[in-house]
Amino acid sequence: MSSSTSTSVMRAVLIKDGKGPSSSLYIGEAPIPTLEQDQVLVKVKAFGLNRMDILQREGQYPLPPGASSILGVEFSGTVVDSGDATQGSKKWSAGQEVFGLATGGAYAEYIKVSSKMILEKPNELSWEQAAAIPENFLTAYQALRVISDMKPGEDVLVHAGASGVGVAAIQLANAFGAGKVYITAGSEEKVEFCESIGAFKGINYKATDWGSELSRITGSKTGSVDVIVDFVGAPYFASNLESLKRDGRMVMLAFMGGAKVKEANIATLLLKRLRIEGSTLRSRSLEYQGELVQGFVREKGLERLIKGCGGDQGHKIVIHKVYPWSQIKEAHDEMEANRNIGKIIVTVE
Question: What is the structure's pLDDT at 1?
Fold first, then answer.
């Protein structure tokens, strides 16, 4: 138990019987986490929802080794105990306002986290905005900079552009100097929204064949973009290969449309010298995730975001809705219904 807390238990969002529908979520009691080497205890102010939370709640998301069974991988809050934790030469101290990434445990009053996976919260950001950053923006940063090594002037295609990671990818691609950013989305409303935050052109995949439309827009029959960030998987695979320019790269972050590809001309991989890589974030080692956070710091990702990722549009940490955690069921229902554009945030009361 932390010396900064007066009790050994805390409130947390728990799941009745360990898994189930949104109605199985309730606020109960759990032990306050005990710090280990190089960890910090944070009193949580707000946390973000992610689709992995729904899968975990349903018992369909295997936890990485050592992860808390409590839901939630991103949060903002105040340091209450830092033990021996340092970040380089910096020592965290009680009262510092931070936000960060975790392998689990954010749906609670307190969370313990590696000191390398938290960042100091800028005054320009609210608790809700800070909690909306870690998972989406670090996943997008990983895809664009760490894996695909997007260079200034290169053109980018982001599928599911109105999703949390999609919104982050649009803005970070612009922040790191992309040429033109194209997106696909499932409605005209979502297309217009993505264009308002920096997408050069959006395509409604429900109204047209996005691959043919992208080729028409760019005037290219041999490849339209240098980098693709994809969440859909099998149904888009063949068109993705056709849409990449020579030496293009594609990062696959999910397979929401299916995982088994039925037809694709893999000769395109050789002829265009394409590179395809799949990635996850939560299952990565703490060392990897910590280095990702520090890389985001070194490349001034946060400063770029605050100063303005969407060109003349200015920065937008897009929050769809904020719920108190007494309405955690309603928050999960909102995400499952796919009604959100941007992040759903929950505040700890």
Answer: 44
Measure the CA–CA gap between 243 and 228, rounded to whole angstroms: 9
Q: Regarding the domain delimited by 9-132+318-347, which CATH topology (the fold level of the hierarchy) does it fall under?
A: Quinone Oxidoreductase; Chain A, domain 1 (3.90.180)
pLDDT means per 10 residues, the chain with 349 residues, are 66 97 98 93 97 94 90 97 69 93 96 94 93 94 96 97 92 94 95 95 97 97 96 95 98 92 90 95 85 89 70 66 98 91 93
Q: Where on the phi/psi map is residue 151: left (φ > 0), alpha (ψ -120 to 50), or beta?
A: beta
- Residue for token digits 């009790």? 7
Under 8 Å between Cβ of 303 and 119: no
DSSP class of 231: S
CATH says 136-278 is which class?
alpha beta
- DSSP alpha helix (H) spans, the chain: 51-57, 127-131, 134-141, 164-175, 188-196, 210-218, 234-243, 267-271, 286-298, 301-308, 328-336
**Residue holding tokens 């944070």?**
42
Tokens standing for 295? 């890389």
Cβ neighbour number for residue 37 with a 10 Å cutoff:
9
For 46-74, the pLDDT digits (tens) are 999 999 999 999 999 988 888 999 999 99
In whole angstroms, give the CA distance from residue 16 to residue 62: 18
Residue 221: count other Cβ atoms within 10 Å of its Cβ: 9
Task: With beta carbons less than 8 A apart as the criterion, state whether 30 and 12 touch.
Answer: yes
| Phi, psi dihedrals of residue 276, rounded to the nearest 5° | -125, 130
- Percentages of the chain per state (helix, strand, coil), in multiples of 5: 35, 25, 40
C-alpha span between 278 and 255 (Å, rounded)? 10
Extents of the domains making up the chain: 9-132+318-347, 136-278
**C-beta of residue 345 within 8 angstroms of C-beta of residue 46:** yes
| Cβ contact 203:213 at 8 Å | yes
3-state secondary structure of 329: helix
As beta bridge partners, residue 202 has: 183
